[in-house]
Amino acid sequence: MSAIGRIIETEACVAEGAAWLAAEEPRFAHALALTGPLPLRRRQGGFTQLLSAIVSQQVSVASANAIWARLEGAGMTDPDRIADASDEALRALGLSRQKASYARALAQAGIDFAALDGAPTEQVVARLTAVKGIGVWTAEIYAMFSLGRADVFAPGDLALQESARLLFDLEDRPREKALRQMAEAWSPWRAVAARALWAYYHVAKDKEGIR
Fold first, then answer.
1. Is the bond into 37 cis (omega within 30 degrees of 0)?
2. How confident is the model over 30-57, as a mean pLDDT?
3. What confidence tier does 208 reach under pLDDT thresholds 50, 70, 90?
4. What's the rounded Cα separation, in Å, for the pair 100 and 126?
5. Rounded-to-integer distance, Cα 20 and Cα 24, Å
6. For residue 161, what are the CA distances in angstroms to 19, 112, 187, 197?
7. Where do the structural domains in the chain lie, given as residue ranges?
8. Helix spans in 143-185 (H)
């Protein structure tokens, strides 16, 4: 992750990466034959995206959506409002005490989000993880989908670990370090490899009858 590399901007970029992976690794060719075209999954970046990630930690999608709606309704998706808000105000909107502290830390961090667009990926990860409550997984997901980095992977993701176990017929689910090393072979399209593994995970689990 020493440079910016390609930026995924369109579905054609994803398709290019998928074709490269299929040519390089027969198992990806197999997975892609089952999944079909992979999604673009680009997102907006900035403060609200990271605040949303904090809100979503360790709660259901429905709960996260409900909390986010309350925050939006109260105008509490603005960094200045969050920075000045009390714990009590944020907890009244559904944030735990811990998440309230994370939200305030993010609001007070003074991140130059525009500068992240041109920063090497390892600098992006370092800058974001310096904020309390933002881990490597969140930072890598941000680089992947908000910044569009084509060569970023998130090996701490449990679904990616399980999908890799299934696709590559591994005896055990690879841990984060092992999967990060494994993903080096998928450079410069590691973010597309992640999309393929997520898609294959859903196909494989549906086939197993797991809901």
1. no
2. 95
3. low
4. 22
5. 6
6. 22, 32, 17, 9
7. 11-41+150-207, 47-146
8. 158-167, 176-183
Task: Read off the tokens for 108.
Answer: 């007070």
Judged on CB neighbours under 10 Å (0-12, 13-18, 19+), 50 is buried
Crossing angle for the helix pair 190-207 and 26-35, to the nearest 10 degrees: 60
8 A C-beta contact, residue 144 and residue 194: yes
User: Which residues, listed in sequence order, are joined to residue 149 by a DSSP beta bridge?
Assistant: 7
Gap between the Cα atoms of 143 and 120, Å rounded:
10
> Phi and psi at residue 150, in whole multiples of 5°?
-80, -20
Tell me the per-residue pLDDT of 8-20, one tens digit each, with 9 for 90 and over.
999 999 999 999 9
Could you tell me the end-to-end alpha-carbon distance of the chain, in angstroms, rounded to an integer? Answer: 35
Instruction: Report the distance separating Cα 8 and Cα 90, nearest Å.
Output: 35
Query: What does the pLDDT look like over 72-124, one tens digit per residue?
Result: 999 999 999 999 999 999 999 999 999 999 999 999 999 999 999 999 999 99
CATH number for region 11-41+150-207: 1.10.1670.40
**CATH 1.10.340.30 matches 47-146:** yes
pLDDT of residue 24: 97
The length of the chain is: 211
Say whether pLDDT at 210 is over 60.
Answer: no
